[in-house]
Amino acid sequence: xxxxxxxxxxxxxxxxxxxxxxxxxxxxxxxxxxxxxxxxxxxxxxxxxxxxxxxxxxxxxxxxxxxxxxxxxxxxxxxxxxxxxxxxxxxxxxxxxxxxxxxxxxxxxxxxxxxxxxxxxxxxxxxxxxxxxxxxxxxxxxxxxxxxxxxxxxxxxxxxxxxxxxxxxxxxxxxxxxxxxxxxxxxxxxxxxxxxxxxxxxxxxxxxxxxxxxxxxxxxxxxxxxxxxxxxxxxxxxxxxxxxxxxxxxxxxxxxxxxxxxxxxxxxxxxxxxxxxxxxxxxxxxxxxxxxxxxxxxxxxxxxxxxxxxxxxxxxxxxxxxxxxxxxxxxxxxxxxxxxxxxxxxxxx
Length: 349
What we know:
By secondary structure, this protein is α/β, with parallel strands linked by helices. Strands 12-15-14-13-16-17 form a six-stranded antiparallel β-barrel. It has a five-stranded parallel sheet with strand order 3-2-1-4-7, with helices on both faces. About 25% of the residues lie in helices and about 25% in strands. It has three domains: about 170 residues, HUPs (Rossmann fold); about 55 residues, Adenine nucleotide alpha hydrolases-like domains (SH3 type barrels); about 80 residues, Beta Barrel (Elongation Factor Tu (Ef-tu), domain 3), CATH 2.40.30. The longest helix has 20 residues. Helix 1 packs across helix 6 and helix 3 runs antiparallel to helix 4.
C-alpha cells in the first residue's frame, strides 16, 4: 500500500489521482504542523478528494516533531547563518516521520506531489530535474537512499498546469494561488517577526561597514540581512552593493561591490551522497546554492574525514543548501554550506 501525502493543494491531489488511475492501493495522509498549518479548509479539501477516490483519509499530528524545524530555523539565523528549513523538514519530517507513520498504517511506500524525477542504477537511487519548469529536486537534496527507494513521485513527467487540469476533471476546486510555499510557518509579516516572537530576540540598529571595517552607514538590525543579498537593503550607496558579511554578535553588516566578494568557495557540511557513492578525487560539477538560480560551474574537492570543499566563484550564503548536478541534471550530492573559503587554489587539481 502507498501512503500519499495530501496537503489539500493541487500538486498532492494530482499525485493521488495519478496513482489511483494506476489502480494502486492508497491511503491519504495529511500531516498537521501547527494551528492552521495546513488550514482547516485544506484538510477538508484533502478529505473530499479521498472520498472521491474512495480511499481512507488519515490526519496525523506532527506539531511536536515540526517544532524542531522551527527551532533550527531560529537558532541558525541568530547564529549568523541563513538556514533552509524546507530542506531539513523534507529530510526529517516529510520523508522521515511520514515514512515511519506510513509503516504504522500498513504502507510500505509513500508518495508526494513534488515535481522531481527518480532514477536508479547499480543499487543506488537518485533524484533529478523533472519536466515541470519549477522542478523541486533541489529541496530534496538531503534525502537518504532508503527514503528515495521508498518514495514515489507521480508528477515527474507532467507540468503544474497539466496537474491542475487533472484535478479539475474530478470537480474538486482548488484555488490557483494555493500552491506550495517555501516556508509554511512564516506568515505575511516575515521571518524577522517570526524569530522575534519565537525567541524574544529584538533586532537593534548597528553599523554598516565597508571592506576596511569603516562605518559608512547604519542598519536596522543585522537579522534583517542575508549574505549575498543585493535587493531590499534599505540603504542608498549610489552604486550596486551586496551584503558581504554580517556579525550577529557585533551587530554589524559589511557591504561592498561584487568585485569585493572575498570568497572563492566553501566547505560542504552534512554531505549527502546521492548519485555518486563516494568522492575520491576532484570532480567538476554544476552547482546550485539557492533554488531560484541557474546552476554554475564548481569543483568538488575531497578532504580528509569525508569532508568536501567546493570551489565556487558565485555568491552564496552559509546555512543554505548546495546541490551538485551532473550534465543530465541528476543530483550527485548535496550538503549545507559551511565555512566560506578565501583561497581554494591549493586544494584539488
